[in-house]
Structure formats: C-alpha cells, structure tokens
Amino acid sequence: MFVADLLLLLRYSVATTSRVHPVCVLYLNKSFLCTFFFTEKKKTELCQELSLQARDLRFQHSTSLTARNNCIIIRMETLKAIVTLNNLLVFDFRGMGLERWLVLELAPQLASQTYSLPFEFRALEAILQHRVNTLQTRLNEVEPVILDTLESLVDPKILSADRSKLHVLLQNSKSLSELETDIQVFKDSLLKILDEDEMIEELCLTKWTDPRVFEESSLGIDHAEEMELLLENYYMQAQELGNTARELKGLIDDSESVIFINLDSHRNVMMRLNLQLTMGTFSLSLFGLIGVAFGMNLESTFEEDPKVFWLVTGFMFLGSGLIWRRLLSFLGRHLEPTLVIHFIFHTLLFIFNCQIANVFFLVDTPSLEKKSERWNKMIILSV
Amino acid sequence: MFVADLLLLLRYSVATTSRVHPVCVLYLNKSFLCTFFFTEKKKTELCQELSLQARDLRFQHSTSLTARNNCIIIRMETLKAIVTLNNLLVFDFRGMGLERWLVLELAPQLASQTYSLPFEFRALEAILQHRVNTLQTRLNEVEPVILDTLESLVDPKILSADRSKLHVLLQNSKSLSELETDIQVFKDSLLKILDEDEMIEELCLTKWTDPRVFEESSLGIDHAEEMELLLENYYMQAQELGNTARELKGLIDDSESVIFINLDSHRNVMMRLNLQLTMGTFSLSLFGLIGVAFGMNLESTFEEDPKVFWLVTGFMFLGSGLIWRRLLSFLGRHLEPTLVIHFIFHTLLFIFNCQIANVFFLVDTPSLEKKSERWNKMIILSV
Amino acid sequence: MFVADLLLLLRYSVATTSRVHPVCVLYLNKSFLCTFFFTEKKKTELCQELSLQARDLRFQHSTSLTARNNCIIIRMETLKAIVTLNNLLVFDFRGMGLERWLVLELAPQLASQTYSLPFEFRALEAILQHRVNTLQTRLNEVEPVILDTLESLVDPKILSADRSKLHVLLQNSKSLSELETDIQVFKDSLLKILDEDEMIEELCLTKWTDPRVFEESSLGIDHAEEMELLLENYYMQAQELGNTARELKGLIDDSESVIFINLDSHRNVMMRLNLQLTMGTFSLSLFGLIGVAFGMNLESTFEEDPKVFWLVTGFMFLGSGLIWRRLLSFLGRHLEPTLVIHFIFHTLLFIFNCQIANVFFLVDTPSLEKKSERWNKMIILSV
Amino acid sequence: MFVADLLLLLRYSVATTSRVHPVCVLYLNKSFLCTFFFTEKKKTELCQELSLQARDLRFQHSTSLTARNNCIIIRMETLKAIVTLNNLLVFDFRGMGLERWLVLELAPQLASQTYSLPFEFRALEAILQHRVNTLQTRLNEVEPVILDTLESLVDPKILSADRSKLHVLLQNSKSLSELETDIQVFKDSLLKILDEDEMIEELCLTKWTDPRVFEESSLGIDHAEEMELLLENYYMQAQELGNTARELKGLIDDSESVIFINLDSHRNVMMRLNLQLTMGTFSLSLFGLIGVAFGMNLESTFEEDPKVFWLVTGFMFLGSGLIWRRLLSFLGRHLEPTLVIHFIFHTLLFIFNCQIANVFFLVDTPSLEKKSERWNKMIILSV
Amino acid sequence: MFVADLLLLLRYSVATTSRVHPVCVLYLNKSFLCTFFFTEKKKTELCQELSLQARDLRFQHSTSLTARNNCIIIRMETLKAIVTLNNLLVFDFRGMGLERWLVLELAPQLASQTYSLPFEFRALEAILQHRVNTLQTRLNEVEPVILDTLESLVDPKILSADRSKLHVLLQNSKSLSELETDIQVFKDSLLKILDEDEMIEELCLTKWTDPRVFEESSLGIDHAEEMELLLENYYMQAQELGNTARELKGLIDDSESVIFINLDSHRNVMMRLNLQLTMGTFSLSLFGLIGVAFGMNLESTFEEDPKVFWLVTGFMFLGSGLIWRRLLSFLGRHLEPTLVIHFIFHTLLFIFNCQIANVFFLVDTPSLEKKSERWNKMIILSV
C-alpha cells in the first residue's frame, strides 16, 4: 500500500455525517508492527466500547490530559486522542493537517522497539512529542521574523520607522503572546499531573493489568517513576520554549525603547539644524532691514556717494555673518534655558551698538577711514 | 401556559415590599419535570425553613460559593441562589434580566435526563454555566470593539490618532480590567473549594442522605470525584477566558507602542520636510539680500549696464539653488550633530567666496567672459 | 448622659502624663448593655492585670492581630485594643478621631443581641469592621477625585495637560499606593491567621472557659469554624477593596498612555499646519525674489512697458499659489521620506522651467499672445 | 575605662596578620554585666574551640543565619558573628564602622535585665535590631533626597528638567534598588527559618542545656515560640521597610510620567505659539508681496496718484491682520487634520478674491468710493 | 608530563567518529591523587558499564542534575558529566573550552584533602563551582559595558543619544536577559532537588555503600544534611548573581527614562530658543512692511523730507525691538495656552495703535516735535 493512496483514502473514504466521528485506530499486531485502520463510529458506540461517559468524549478544553476508567483521554488543540491498553484512537483528524503525521510519523514511532516500554507510554510520548514539535515550529516561524524586523527597526541610520515593518512586528508579537499562552497551558496541564502522585499512577494503564512488565527490565524502575520522567521531560522542553519566548518578548520591549531614543535623537539633531538655520534667517532679516530702509523712496542724503553702497552692502553681509556666528557659538556652548534670556539681551545690546555705530559712521563720510578702524575694533571686541 | 404570560406574571405578580424577598423555587416533580413557582418570603421564615442563619442569607460578597447546613449558598454577582437536596431557590431575580434565563434555560437544564446526576449537581452546573456564559458574553462584547479600534489606530497612514477612538479604547480597556477582576474572583472562589477536599464533600448534598446513588451507576465514580470534575471544568473554562483577556491587554500595550512609534515617525518625516523647506527659505533669504542691496537708493555704478541685471538675477536664483542643493545633500548624507558645525563653516566659506567672486567679477565688466568661466569652475569645485 | 458631654469628658478628663496610658474599657453589664468608662493606667499595672508581657503592650507593628495568654491584642494603625473574655480595652484613643466611633458606634454594636455570639467575637467583628470602613472611606475619598481628574485630562479637545490637575493626580496616585499597601498588610495579617488552624482556635477565648456556648445554639456550629467565617468575611471585603484599588491603578496607567497619544496627535496636527504654512512662505519667498530682482536699481529694458508690470505681478502670485498647491498635494498624498528628495528635484526642475519660460517670454514681447498660451499649457502639464 | 580610649585600643591594639582574625568576645559576667575583650585568633583555633568546620567560618553569603553544632552563625553584610551559649563573638569588626556600635550599644543591650531571656535570644535580637536599623538608616538617607528631587522635577512651571537633579534621582533610584534587594534578602533569610520549625528549635541553644529556663517564667511560654516571635518581629519590621521602598519606587515611576506629560504640554504650548507667529509671518509675506510688486522698477500707471500709496499700504496691513485673525480663529476652533485642507483652499479663494478686487479697484480709480464699499462688504462676508 | 603536551594530546589523540564519544575519566588512585585518562566509548558500552538507559546518556536538557541507578548525571550547558562512586566521566569535552579547566582546575580540586568528603561530593562541588564561575564570568563581562554605556548615555550635556552606544546597550541587554534565564534555570534545577528530601538522599552515593563514612567524622553530620548544605550554598550564590542581574535590568530601565527626559528637555530648550527667534523674525517682518511700503514706486508726499528717512528707519528698528521684548517677556512670564490668545489681541491692538500713530504723525510734519513726545509716551505706556 502506497502512502499517497493511503492519504487519499484517509481523506475521502469516510463519509462525514454529523453524528458520526471519523476515528483512526492504531494498534500493535502480534509481530509488533503498528497497524492502523480508519473507521467511523457514533459517540454512543464509543462510550459503550470504552465504558466512558459521553462527557469524556466531548474534549471540552483545548489542552487536557486525564486518565479515566483505564483510558487516557488527551486533547492537544486539534489533536483529540484516546489511549487504551492496546489501541490509540485519534478523532476528527481530517482537515487538521494531521493525516501525514498519523501515517508517516506516529505509526513508526509506536512500533519502534528501542526501549521495551508498554504501549501507553509510547503513545503518550508520541503525542506529547508532537505537541512540543508543533509549539517549537510556531516559535521557529515567529522568531526569525521578529529578529529581522527588530534588526532593521533599530538601525540607527533610519530617520523614521518603516510602518509596514511595525505592522509585521505587531502581528508577530501577537502570535508570540498566543504561543506563550499555549506553552503555559501545556505546562500547567502537565504540572497538574506531576503534582499529584495518584494521577501519575492512573496514567500507567499497564500497571493494573500486567504489573510485572517492569520487573523483567534490568533496571528495576517503577511504572510511576518512568511516567514521571516521561512527563517531566516534556515539561522541561516546554519550559525551554517558554524561556525563549519570554526572552523574545523582552527583546521587543528593549528594542522599542531603543527605537524611541533613536527617533528622538534624530529629531533633536534636525531641530538643532533647524535652529541653526532659523538663526541664519533671523540674522539676514535683521540686517536686511537696513537694505529695506535704504530702499525706501525717502531722501537719505547718501544717494550720490558710490562708496556708501559698498559700505552698507558689506555691513549687511558681514553683520549677518557675525551675528549668526555668535548665535551658533552660543548654541554650541550651552543650551541652558536661563542663559538664553541673558544672551538675547546681550545680543540686542550688541546690535544696537552696531546700528548706532553704523549711523554715526554714515553721517560724517570724510573721516571714514578712521571710523572704519574703530568700528572694526568694536566688532572684534563684542565678538 | 405560554412563556410570554409567564414572564409577565413573573414581573408583576409579586409585590415588592421591603422586607419580603421574591423567591423563585424550582424543583423536580415525580415525572422528573422541572416545575417552578414564584412566591415571596420573609428572611426569618426562610432561615427557619432552611435552618440557616440570617447572615447566610445576606449574600455579602459579590461572588461566593459555600456549603452550609446541607444547603449550597451561591452568589454570582446578580444571581443569588440556594440549592437544597430537592429545590433550587433563586432570590431577588427581578430587574436583573434573569427572568428569561430562569424560565427558558434553567428549567429545561434541570430536567434533562442525559446523565442521571443528583439534583444539586445539575443545579450547580446550571448556575456555574450561567456565570461562565455571562463572562464570555462580556468578553465577546469587548473583544471585537478593542480589535477594531486598535486596527484603525495602528493604521500607518494616519497622521494623528483619532481621539474619539482613543476614548472608546479607554472605555473598553476599563471594562476589560473589570472583567479580568471578575474572572479572577470567580476562579479564586472555585480554587478555594478545589484546594480543600472537605469543602468538596460538603457540596455533595446527596452523599449524606443517599450515598448509594453513584453505586448504581456503572462507572463506579465517587460523589466527591464527580463534584471535583464539575468544578474543575468551569475553573478551566474561566482560565481560558482569563488567558484571552490577558492576551488582549498585552495587545493593547503593544499597539500603544506601535501608535507612538507611528506618530513619532510621522513627526520626523514632517520635521525633515520642514527642515528642507527652511533650508530653501534660508538660501533664498541669503541671495535675496543681494537683490535688496541693489534695490537701495544708493549709487552702485552698474545702473546703466543692461547685462548686470541679468547677471545678478541669474546669480541670485542659481546661487540659491546651489546652496539649497548642498544643504539637502548634506542632510541626506548624515545627520551627525558634530558634523553640522563643520558643514556650516564650510558653507559660510563657500558663500563668502561666491560673494567675493561676485564683487570682483562685477568690478571689471570687460573681462566678463573669462571671469564667468573661472566662476563656473569655482562653483563646480565647491559643489 | 448626653453624647456631647461624654465626648467632652472623653477629651479632657484624663490627664496626659507620659507614662500613663488613657484606656477606654467597654464591657457588657448584666442586662447585656454595653457600659464603658475611661481611666488611665500604667503599663506595668496593665501587664500584671492581664498577665501579659510589657512587649505585648508596645504594639510595635502598624497592623497586627495576635492571641496571647487569653487576650487578643489588636493594632489597626491608630486603633490599639485588647480583647479579653469580658472586656474590650482601647488605648491611646485620644487625638485619633476615635472618640465618636467609640461612643456612638462601638458600644451599640457590642450590645446588639441579634446573634448570640460570645463577647470576643463581637468585639473582633466591630474592630475589623471599623478597619475595613476606614479603608473603604479612604478609597471613596481618592476614587472620585482620580476619576474626575482623569476624565478632564483625557479630554481629546485639550491641547496641553492642565498641570495643576497633574499635581492632583500625582498626589492621589500616591495616596492610592499607600492605601494599596495598607489593604495588603491588613489582608496579610488576616491570612496569616487563616492559614493556621491553631491560631484561629487561640482567638476563640470562650472556647477554653465555656466550650458549651455553641452547643446551645441550634446550628451546632463550632467556635473555630465561626471565627474562620468571621475573619474570612473581612478578608474578602479587603480583597474587594484591593481589586478596586488595583483597577484604579490600571486606569491611571491606561489614561496616561491616552494622554500621551493625545498630546502627540495634537503636536502632529500642529506640525502639519506649520509645515503647510512654511510651504506657503517658501513659495512666496521664491517668487518674491522675482519682485526683488525687478526692484533692483539696474536696467532691465522692460521699465517702460506697462503690460510687464501686470505680467510679472500675476506670475508672482500665480506661481506662488501653484507651487504651494503642488507642495500641499504632495504632503497630502504621501509622507514617505524617500519621496521627498524626488519631489524636491522635480519641483526644482519645474521652477527652472518656469523661470526660463519667464525669461524667454519677456525677451520678445510681440509674440506675447502665443507664448502666454504655450506657457499656460506648460503650467497645466507640470501641475 | 573611657570609651574614647577603648575605641582607640580597639582600632590599633590588634595586629593585622593575614591569617589571624580580630575577634571581639562579649559575655555576661556573674554580676550580669556585659564584659568584652579583644583578641585575635587563627581560624583553626576557632574551629577547634567551637567544634565547627572551617567552612562555617568562611561566612560565604552576604546575609545568612544558621545554627550549627550549638552555635548560631550570623552574617549581616559587614557584621560577622557567632553566638554560643554564653559568648558573642564578632569577627573582622575593624574598618567597618562597627566599633562604636559594639562598645556603646551592643554591650548595654546584652546586659539589660528587663526581660530575663537567655543570652542567645538577647544577642540575636541585638544583631537583628542592628541590621534593621542599618536598613532603616539607608532608607532614611535615600527617601528625603528622592522626595525633594521629585518635588522639584514635577514642578509644572519648569520648561525643562534640571539635568543635575535627574542625575541625583538616578543615583538614588539605584541605591533604592540595592536597598530593596538587601531588604528582600534579609526577609528571605528570616523566612527560611520561620518556615521550618526544626530550624527555629535549633536556634534555641539554651533549650538543649537548660530546658527549664522558661518554666520558671510566669507566662509559661515555650523556647521555640519565643524565638518565632522574635524573628517574626524583625521580619515584619523588614516588611514595613520593604513596603516603603516599593511605594517610593512607584512614586518615582508616577512622577516620571507626570514629568513627561509636563514637558510634552510645554512643548505643545510653545508649538501653538510658534504656529501662531508662523501664521503672522505668512500673512505678512503674502501681503508684503504686493508691496514688493509695486517696488519693482516697472511702470504700473499709478505712480502719480498720492491716494494709491495710502490705499495699498492700508490694504497690506489690514489684509495681513484679517488673514492672521482668520488663521488664529481657525486654529482656536478645531485642530482636525481633515479640516486644514478645506480651510486652506477656502482661504486661498478668499485671497484670490481680494487680489482680484484689488486689481479691479485699482484699475478704475474714479468709481473708487463705490468699489471700496463693495470691497468692505466682501471682506466682511468672507470673514 | 607537561601540561602543554597534555592539552595537545587531549585535542588530537582521540579520533572523532560519529557514534563514538570522547570521554575523560577522572578518578582518585590509592595515594589519593587525581589521575585521569582520555578514551572513547560507544554509547551502548557506556550504558552497559554504568547500567544506565540510553536515554540517560542523551543529556536532553541544557541544565539538569539527576541521580539514576547510583550515578549522578549532570549537564550544565556544554559540560556533560556522570559521577559514580569512584569516577567522574566528562563527555564531549572537546571544542568547548573545557580542556584547560579539566586538567588545571578539576583534577587538583578533586584531589584536595582539606575536608575528607566522599568523592561524589567533591566532584559535584567542582562542577557546580565551575557553573557558578561561568555565570559570574558572563555577568562580569556584561556589567561594566552596560554601566559604561549608560554612564555616557545619561550624560546631561549630550543633545542626542549616540546610536552606536544604543546598539551596544541593546546587545548587552539581550545578553543580560539570556544570563538571567540561565541563572533562573540553574536555580530551578537546584531548587527541585532541595525541595525533595528523597532526591537529596539519592545524590549521596556513598551512603548506600559505605554509610559509616560520616560516623568517623568528628562533627557527626549526616550525608543528606551535608549534601543539602552543598547545594544550598550554590543556590545562594546563584541567587546573588540573579539579584545583581535584576538590579542591572532595573538600572537600564531607569536610565532609559532619564535619557528620554534629557532628550525632551533639550528639545524644549531648543524649541524655546527657536520660538524666541521666530518672535524676532516676526517683529522684523511686521516693521519691515513699513519699509516695503515706502519702497513702492508710489507717491507718498514725504519723498523730499530728509528727516522722514531717519524717523521711519528709527521707528522700524525701535518698533521691532519693542515688540520682540514684549513677546519675550510674555514668553518668560507664562506659557498658559489660554493667555496666548489674549496676548495676541492685546499686541495686535498695540501694533495698530502704533501704525495709526505713525500715519497721523507722518501726515502733518510741522507738529513733528510734539507728536514724537506723545508717541514716546504711548510706547512707554503700552510697554
């Protein structure tokens, strides 16, 4: 029988009537090979056969693991199974992506003879392993995406966070939270059993029918002890997954802080640059006013002197440059708020001095050479 | 008897005097149908009938579940009930929206014969189911609103958060907190019983009167064990609700971070654009100053040369453009704060060079062709 | 005896010497009325009378409840009391606002015969009730202030948070933290007793002297069981207070996030408006430069043509408007940082095109009609 | 013997060789006075004398309290001590600031006869008291500094946080964290003993040698019970310290939120003011363009009419004022982003209307009176 | 045999076939010296020799410590070891950096005769010590880097956070999280044993073969008690590491808040400075409009009066200065948003007053002296 045919059979052969559940029964035949067949049964039939209550077959909680009347009833999200002494029944397996696992992985795993453990141990181990693998797969899907997204978001060179990446991060962060909850629920369901010795013993189905199984083994280990080891093993695997998920959550938080500091830093740098340019514009406006004044259609008596044009033009450009340099050096030295006011009045004084100097110096043009020297000194002193 | 009439009867038939409590009594008649009648009783009468203390009928805590003197006293927020061996008494049910539930759901649920459990089990199950349903309903109301609001708030395209949606979010976040507390209180009240085997046994009223009920059942399950399963079932349902609520809280926190990063990113982008325009305005102001200078009513000796107009105008526009391009490329290359100062002095040097070039080049107009070539080279070099 | 007189008496009759403690003794007289008198005793006298150690009367911890040598020693913050079989002694009650409670509430409560509980039960209940009431009162004071302040702070219309309200919030948030601690300490002190059955039994003073008190009661309830119920009742009341306080804390945190998002949103909106105006100013500066150019005292050969004035003026206003509109539509369409650069060079190209068009079109005025058509097309195309 | 001499002796008399430990031995002499002498012993000698293992004298953990072979071995950070039945040995006390405490406080405390407790109780109490006092002192140092710093940082009037105060806050916040850890470690070490009755009994050294000590006391209290009370007392004192520290941490967090809201509010207010001034500058630029247009050296045909000067000047100032008022009222009414676009196109329309009105109205000056009326109406309508 | 040779031998002598594990066996020879040899064994051989199951040799979890069939199976991350009564087997030691430790530290430690503890105690102690040392080393690597980075990041003088340092911080913060998890896992694995007395006894291998070992010792200490002390010692060392790591995490969080406040403060100071300059630019634009008005080619009738030039120029500069001073003092006094509007209309009024004064005063030039006085008063009043 080919696997592909089997999978096809599995998918279509069983009619889906509402009250009838598709069941996959796996059992070990006499040559210790795992055989399986697909059937469909009514709930009531199953209850009678396994002498369980209808309630037990409802699998109410998303994750549960209980022993009831010599059966182990397991639900791990989509996987609903009942383990008896010799059979493993898997319910409602279709449309859940479980077919491949059932045929290709579960059957060989149950048949493997490496350690001669009773059937229910092997079935339980296969199912718990499948659950941990599922959780691990989900973590493996989420982890690299989050790490990549964070890597590109905390890149110090970027000015603004890429919004599509934020969306990806948010989606994966949500998946991570759900994964954390599922891991926690899985851990809790195992811990509940590990905390009560009675419940562990109930899970050892063989113990009540064939207590001498373990006596044959050389190591003299107990049924319950073996079961505890098995459950503890998967508990610790889940805990390792949980630790990784928690660290990832912490990394997201830390990275968000770094993104905020990055964005804030960028903003401060741009604001400083903006402030420096505003200082320049202010200086140009201040000295441009002189030009506007001379541009008025009013008589200023200097109209005819060709030297005055160059003097005023030079004063405008030079004055702007000097004021700007003072403003920049002020910004560079300290950004203390209390000092700003002092600076501004200091600067105002300097400006009015310059203007007065300008006016005086324009009034008597003959002594122009002398004045210009004095004026240069004045600028040097105040700068 | 029609349901509508019944509901009407339920609402108006019982006079509300202050000391008299409306009581709805539900019991199974001999044909195992659930019958109910409405009456009103004084507290003292009830105490005597049930041999309880007055204190027990005060239902002090919002959520409690205790066994007292062969009665189970339950309060689940608005629902106050006492379960005896054969009766279920519901108190103060009016105005709480409980009428419909009493008549349409509770009565059939008590009468259902699917599993032949004693009366108190069925009553307790009905009440706990009602409580979990109420909590589930509240979560179902809050969850989609929060998800929708967050969906629209983290939309990367929006510039500013919609304040009305923030209000909705805050309101629902508050409701979610209250729901979380209620779920926790419900879980705690169940856990308190689950942790003590004595209390579980006290809840099994039938055990003390008719201990053989369960012996008849085929499964040989114990009273206390059955009760533990029942309580545990609802405990786990509440835990699943709690997990969902906690995940939702986490999603709100994560989304808030994303909203902040979004708003900050938008701001940085706008600030960069603003800075680019400020650079443009600065460039125009700087070279506009030349125009202002030539606009002064002062003699510059170039007044009559028609070429000078085009040269100066060209220089103003071209100079502005070049300076702006330099500023933009500087911004694009690096935003390091230490480099800004270097850049500015570098630029200042360039500007003064240009101005000097301008002046020299205007002074001797004959050699205009040569100069313009040299000047072009100079610009190319400095850009 | 009038209450007012009594309160006066209470306040002034007892001289306050340092070593002498004012004590209020309450006891039930034979007609089951609560009588009380005020006295002052030395610590050593008290120790001998109650056969306690000096250490027991030091009331070291702010909240404690212990049984010692047939006395219950209670301290609840300001209230220090010792309950014996027949008496309730309250210490250092003056200046603590306890007088009114002692006379008006405690005495009647102790005398009430509703349930015939032993004296120590009633005394303990009165004191615990008083403690819970005090905590409830503090919560009731803090809660509405916080809710009101938050309500006005999260108002989406306000531009900046009212700083005086922030101060109020901070103060009440601090009070809330202290209240939470006090509730927790109260809960812990009750839980310590509830966790140990021995300690509960020690609190039942009557049990050791008159164990048959409860046998007389119809309900057959035990001393210790009754005490457990009593303590548990107040434990749960404290827990409800604690839950409310915790929810309030959560609400403050959530509201702070909303306030931040609100302020950030306002800032983004203002920044967008600012950017739009900066765009306008930039456009006006750019085309104003043309005006400045024609304002220069240089010969442009168009001086005499009256049409040129209207053409250039129109070009300036129309050009500014068009550029601004383009900038605004660019801002509206996308705020992507990478596109800004493309946009700016695109715009620069458009501007230079316009200027070239302008220049060419001014050079040959005869073909003005044709050119203006072509120019209009060019503008339409580039917009 | 003078205390000063003693302290001097204590500091210098004992030579510090590497292998030899300075030991201060305190014991009660027969007249029940606490005598002490200083000596130095080798570790091996000590081990033999006290019959302890070398490992026990290594005091590996910073906080530990264990009973070993009829000795209580205590380490509380710098204080290393061993309590035997009759002696208290303090090790390595020099350079730790312990000398003063040893001489002035510990000795009298051990000798005090107020309650006749065995020696080891008094020694243990003295050491635990010293530890709690040390923790209390550290909290007392940190608390007022933090409260003061926060008080000045949350001051709503300040524009920017004082950076030196932030540094102080950070330092003290770190100290507080370390203090919290130390309190927790102290609590844990006491709790470990309180949780196991055996360990408590081991601490009662007298019990094994002279079990009748307590029988003599009037109160009939047990050794172990007394020890439990003693440890519990210091546990609760530590818990109160821990609560205070935790509240302080919470206050720092709350205050930081308030500081952020304060800074954000200030920024929004400044941004609004900036926006209002940008609006003013924009209005002035817009109408200044008219002035620039008329300043061009181009023929506008109005040059000679003196009324036009006043009309245009008035229009410029009045128009700027009106536009600014409209912009301000727009800002005041609503800051909705969607409305900004509508507003801007509305305003643009208004401006173009005004300009057209301006142009038309300037063209035919005769009908000036009529036009001006119509124009006024238009302005009124559009405002 | 030289150590270097030995290390070389260790590295190359053992061929690495896939199924064969390199094993280092350490044992005490008869002269109580620790001898070791390197060998390679198949898993199945090992299982048979030690009578363990194959599963036990898979070392599935990263950190585990279990007793199985008179062997202690230990895995501490890279270190996989099995302790038997007389041997210590270390597996897969190559390429893990364990060689040096094996030869130089482990061997002498096992041989040391200071306290005559059984072999398994000494082996366990050596391995746990190695694990704690590894964790300590990792903390020592991370701690100074984090402290340095934070120190430079919270520096109040810096305007923007150094992005490369943020990256370093993020990397180390991640390492710290991983370290915290590892410490927690190590603590949990020890705690699991410490919580169950049975498991402690299982670890004492000698107890089952030679129970009289401890009876010989003078101190009469028990096997299990000794083992508990040993494990507890390393548990507490791990806890101290954990506390340090937790404090470091807290410090990072606190520092991030301080960095945010720092950046925000800087931004506010820059914004204030920007606002002050915007105020200046606004003032200059406002009064520059007068200059632009007079620059228009329109007849203002003042063209010929030389005094008017100086008056208007003075008015422009003086007016700008006064308005700016008013704006600055307004900013200094209060930043309340409601007052801004009042201020602006107040200022507008003042400006229009000035302009009206200006216009009136320019109209009749003869009474210029009088007007100027009145005008000065007006300015003084309004300022």
From TrEMBL, chains A, B, C, D, E:
<dbReference type="GO" id="GO:0045016">
    <property type="term" value="P:mitochondrial magnesium ion transmembrane transport"/>
</dbReference>
<keyword id="KW-0460">Magnesium</keyword>
<keyword id="KW-0472">Membrane</keyword>
<comment type="function">
    <text>Magnesium transporter that mediates the influx of magnesium into the mitochondrial matrix and regulates magnesium metabolism. Also permeable to calcium, sodium and potassium ions. Required for normal expression of the mitochondrial respiratory complex I subunits. May play a role in maintaining the inner mitochondrial membrane potential.</text>
</comment>
<dbReference type="GO" id="GO:0015095">
    <property type="term" value="F:magnesium ion transmembrane transporter activity"/>
</dbReference>
<keyword id="KW-0406">Ion transport</keyword>
<keyword id="KW-0496">Mitochondrion</keyword>
<dbReference type="Pfam" id="PF22099">
    <property type="entry name" value="MRS2-like"/>
</dbReference>
<feature type="signal peptide">
    <location>
        <begin position="1"/>
        <end position="15"/>
    </location>
</feature>
<comment type="subunit">
    <text>Homopentamer.</text>
</comment>
<feature type="transmembrane region" description="Helical">
    <location>
        <begin position="277"/>
        <end position="296"/>
    </location>
</feature>
<feature type="transmembrane region" description="Helical">
    <location>
        <begin position="339"/>
        <end position="363"/>
    </location>
</feature>
<keyword id="KW-0732">Signal</keyword>
<dbReference type="GO" id="GO:0005743">
    <property type="term" value="C:mitochondrial inner membrane"/>
</dbReference>
<keyword id="KW-1133">Transmembrane helix</keyword>
<keyword id="KW-0999">Mitochondrion inner membrane</keyword>
<comment type="similarity">
    <text>Belongs to the CorA metal ion transporter (MIT) (TC 1.A.35) family.</text>
</comment>
<feature type="transmembrane region" description="Helical">
    <location>
        <begin position="308"/>
        <end position="327"/>
    </location>
</feature>
<keyword id="KW-0813">Transport</keyword>
<protein>
    <recommendedName>
        <fullName>Magnesium transporter</fullName>
    </recommendedName>
</protein>
<keyword id="KW-0812">Transmembrane</keyword>
<keyword id="KW-0809">Transit peptide</keyword>
<dbReference type="InterPro" id="IPR039204">
    <property type="entry name" value="MRS2-like"/>
</dbReference>
